[in-house]
Write a structure and sequence with these properties.
Layout (H helix, E strand, L loop, with lengths): L3 H21 L3 H18 L17 E2 L16 E2 L17 E3 L6 E3 L9
Antiparallel strand pairs: 1-2, 3-4
């Protein structure tokens, strides 16, 4: 027969397990916040379009800082990968500010500022 002490310890252990589980579970509110943040992030990209083909980047679009003869004439690329529209063309690796951006869809170059539709 279990003693009262053993039962109390087992009950505390179960209670602790439930409390820990509650800390890590996802709630509807958590999902709502994530969904709203995702919509907010994606809406920031709706105003960005390639001036040549109208392609729109997303939050997951990635560019690379590499040597570029034309049109940038920059030969000190650092190899960093990032979304250039998160930093308005500034490489977080070497701090070079890219004046030109290549479209990931049509591969043509345009001035970075020309990608921002309706904002001048």
């Amino acid at each position: 027969m279990n003693s009262a002490r053993e039962l109390l310890q087992r009950k505390r252990g179960i209670g602790l397990t439930i409390e820990l589980f509650a800390l890590f579970r996802k709630t509807f509110q958590d999902e709502k916040i994530r969904t709203e943040k995702l919509k907010e992030d994606e809406s920031d990209y709706r105003i960005i379009r390639c001036p040549k083909c109208a392609w729109q980047p997303s939050a997951s679009s990635i560019w690379y800082c590499s040597d570029c003869l034309e049109p940038e004439y920059y030969l000190e690329g650092c190899g960093t990968s990032w979304n250039t529209f998160d930093t308005h063309g500034k490489c977080p690796g070497c701090n070079h500010i890219w004046r030109w951006t290549s479209c990931l869809s049509c591969s043509r170059w345009s001035l970075h500022d020309d990608w921002y539709q309706g904002i001048k």
